[in-house]
Amino acid sequence: MTHTEHLHGGDAVVSAFTAAGADHIFCSSGSEWAPVWESLARHHRDGLPCPGYLDLTHETVAVGMATGYGLITRRPQGVLLHAAPGLLQGSMAVHGALLAGVPMVVASSESTTYGDGPGQDPGGQWYRNLSIVGGPHQVAQPFTKWSNEAAGIHTLPTMITRAAELARRAPAGPAYLNIPLEVLLEEWDGREAKPIAAPGSTHSSPEEADAAAQLIREARNPVIVTETAGREAGGFEALVAFAEAWQIPVVEPDSAVCGNFPRTHPLHAGSDIGPWMDEADLILLVNCRAPFYPPSRRPSEAKIVVIDEVPQRPHVVYQVLFADRYLEGDVANTLRQLTKRAEDLDAAVLTARRSAQEQRHAEEQAAVAAAEAGAEGAEGIDPVLVAATLRRLLDGRDGIVVDETITHSRVVRRHLRTDVSDAYFYVQGGLGQGIAVALGVKLAARERPVVLTIGDGAFAYNPVIPSYDASKAYQLPLLIVVFNNRVYKSMNLNHRRFYPDGAAAETGEWLGTDLHRLPRLASFAEPFGMHTETVDTTEALAPALERALKAVAEGTTAVVDVLVTR
């Protein structure tokens, strides 16, 4: 540091994120972050350790990439947005991170002096355009886990530390910190933040585990239902061992956030909890925030055991679990404790249970094969064929699929049949985040091919140009496969469901759904020098996807727009 340089709030931010273990700071640029940029430039010049910095041109891209990165690493990163407007622009993606359980520290700014105080002039834009009554931390409260303001330079580093620690603890999610520009510009005394420690673990007592194991032992027809067991460190493997030890089928409902159990496993029981509502005598909800719909739909006979570190999620507005018993604490540990208790089981009961599940599994395998055979011979490209072709091409490549389809999401999950952890993620919250989340996943797993499956409607919501810019600037090649049916089909289905004999059905005037007017979706990638294909025949599908995967392996994002029949 030269004699004319002084430490300031920007240095405090960089120091705190470094101590918090952030690998990256994802920034959608705003004028308040000049102190952070100056600090990073100094760190780079002097060879000092600091997080990597990503300069991104849209708030959804910044937050979405932090989400994707956190899905893989499970550690909080830094996200810098611009004032209240930038926070509002990025809020949908922040809410998605909350629903996905991804830790991050999001920060933006305000002015406290509006140019009437001592020190440097913050600029008239804060007085005219950027400020919001109550401060941006008030705006962030509904869609973050914790929201506060760093009111002074002396508390700034420890406030970032606290935000990172809160974000990482269960239920993990984004924390927000409002850092006024005047604080960023203020001189800092250089006291460094202490590196944060990993969260400690809590466990259910042996007595609680014994009681739950006894319920499982007495059950003749139990079932496991899970949404996010795979998000826990070791959760995927622990759930497999638990299910196998007790021979219990596993249902992953449509609300599953990630891959939690191998879809190729004989104990995988599909995505529909419906058949179990009247048949099961014990339902084990493992990290399952919303198992029943409508929420009042109570199982007929089953006792319900909830296994979750924080079963009642504070950010879920309405949550009904019908629990008879809770096992709270580290989920993977709880599953391992229950696995150890799978002793002296009734062989006849296990045989009957295994036989029934084998029949269900065989029927599902046959149904999948029949659907794929039908898609092979269909006129035009059926969505089933797209998912099945992707599965075959990704076999043995250790790929990761990020899914932002709506009407095709069941098809994607059913026919991709992922069988390892961290191989599938479904984008949470509002549409328009998929490309950014996939980029963040790729940043965290550069050696693995990352595929985004997305509908044409969802694609239109994405900030496509800023996303492609980030892909090219940071060498993050993706395969983007668009399931393009030229319609907002989910909206059309709801219209037909609510008004089956209405005026629209009578006249054929279906509003709010037509996407035929959009140009070729792959063409937006052409100015970036990316590989693009538009496919409308079954014969062309596999070769196009093969060429696209080859382009990705060579370092170029590829967009394949597939014109599907439904």
Query: What is the β-strand count?
Result: 17
Number of helices: 21
Q: What gyration radius follows from the Cα positions, in whole Å?
A: 25 Å
CATH topology of the largest domain: Rossmann fold
Give the N-to-C terminal Cα separation: 62 Å
* Lateral arrangement of strands in the main beta sheet: 2-1-3-4-6-5
Shape: globular
Strand content: 5-15%
- Which regions have little confidence, pLDDT < 50, spanning 5+ residues? none
Q: Any idea what the CATH superfamily of the largest domain is called?
A: Thiamin diphosphate (ThDP)-binding fold, Pyr/PP domains
Number of structural domains? 3
CATH class categorisation of the largest domain: Alpha Beta
| Biggest sheet architecture | 6 strands, parallel
| Helix-strand category | alpha/beta
Q: What number is the mean pLDDT?
A: 95
Structural topology:
Elements: H1 9-19, E1 24-28, H2 34-46, E2 52-56, H3 59-73, E3 77-80, H4 83-100, E4 104-108, H5 124-130, H6 136-140, E5 146-149, H7 156-168, E6 174-178, H8 181-185, H9 206-218, E7 222-226, H10 235-246, E8 250-251, H11 276-279, E9 282-286, E10 303-307, E11 325-327, H12 331-340, H13 347-376, H14 383-394, E12 400-404, H15 409-416, E13 424-426, H16 434-444, E14 450-455, H17 456-461, H18 464-473, E15 479-484, H19 489-498, H20 503-507, E16 531-535, H21 538-553, E17 558-563
Parallel strand pairs: 1-2, 1-3, 3-4, 4-6, 5-6, 7-8, 7-9, 9-10, 10-11, 12-13, 12-14, 14-15, 15-17, 16-17
Helix pairs in contact: 1-2, 1-7, 3-4, 3-16, 10-12, 13-14, 14-15, 14-21
Domain Thiamine pyrophosphate enzyme N-terminal TPP-binding: 8-117
GO molecular function, one term: flavin adenine dinucleotide binding
Domain Thiamine pyrophosphate enzyme central: 210-338
